[in-house]
Amino acid sequence: MKYCSECAHPVSLIVPPDDNRPRYVCANCGAIHYQNPKMVIGSIPVWEQDGEARILLCRRAIEPRHGYWTLPAGFMENNETTADAALRETAEEAGARIELHELFSLLNVAHVHQVHMFYRATLLDLNYAAGTESLEVKLFTESEIPWDQIAFPTVGQTLKFFFADRASLKNGGSYGLHTHDITTSMRQRDY
Amino acid sequence: MKYCSECAHPVSLIVPPDDNRPRYVCANCGAIHYQNPKMVIGSIPVWEQDGEARILLCRRAIEPRHGYWTLPAGFMENNETTADAALRETAEEAGARIELHELFSLLNVAHVHQVHMFYRATLLDLNYAAGTESLEVKLFTESEIPWDQIAFPTVGQTLKFFFADRASLKNGGSYGLHTHDITTSMRQRDY
């Protein structure tokens, strides 16, 4: 940020009075321009068949991580709820209709100022189709998942939590909320 | 937003190519200025005594809702995790040391572009003290809580969820994650 978005005067990075960290402050109009983390919200669309869970993944048509696989997810928008965002991103990126269940994972990615959240979901039909941000959309069983071609650590970690919880069901386990901090990137160049 | 923060040129609110909602776009340098929801993170600091839970609340010394009671909470900052934010806000507003437990509530306040989250926590000692944003800080049992003087609907709802879960413990219940959408303001003038 170089200029005040309210009056176009150059801003300075200083600690405002009664604050304890540097902010972009406008000496002309007095505006303080706060910068805060963003939320990336998605779903884990599950299709159950022959006693096995298949997960709908999207191969990214955009940077970062073009060509890599991800759960449908994206930046939460103003005027929507976290559940709205999960439904919207799943429709936009995977053309998929889902029934949303509870919040399943919350992952902090502090070094890029993001919090990622994924809802567990049931895929309602097989009429999914790649949106403009996806090259292809496909169902994967646990053994079929391309673990070395997953776009983001938060997606890989969420898939691991999902299959661990699912395996625990037969021993009386259940799905629960998983919180996790990502402290290093899967591939250093991407973050 | 009136001017581009990168080049000081006036911005226009238009739908960019390959997008589906209006953004502030700079016709001079091409920057798209996205605006996204913010996270407000806090804690529920609990002090157990004589078989009763006492919750630490802060009376606000700042607007909005000056003079009303809140759980310690505030805007999450860049470079921190949600847990970091809960610990920091509890220290700043209530001068309190806590042990953080699991995420307890996530509340969408879509009409003000916010998501509020509260962690369950144990107050570690009674050496708390009002920070610069609090007039006073005080422990309340459930019956003592000033329900009609709670600053924000997300705080009142979180306290209700907390005491309901706590009451369920003696019947084999447990604390769980509560998600909830706030669709109207407690007092219209405040949101």
UniProtKB/TrEMBL annotation, chains A, B:
Keyword Protease carried by entry: no
Nudix hydrolase domain: residues covered: 37-163
Q: Indicate yes or no for the key word Hydrolase.
A: yes
The enzyme class is hydrolase
Q: Which CDD domains match?
A: NUDIX_Hydrolase (cd04511)
Which EC number(s) does the record attach to this protein? Answer: 3.6.-.-
Q: What is this protein called?
A: NUDIX hydrolase
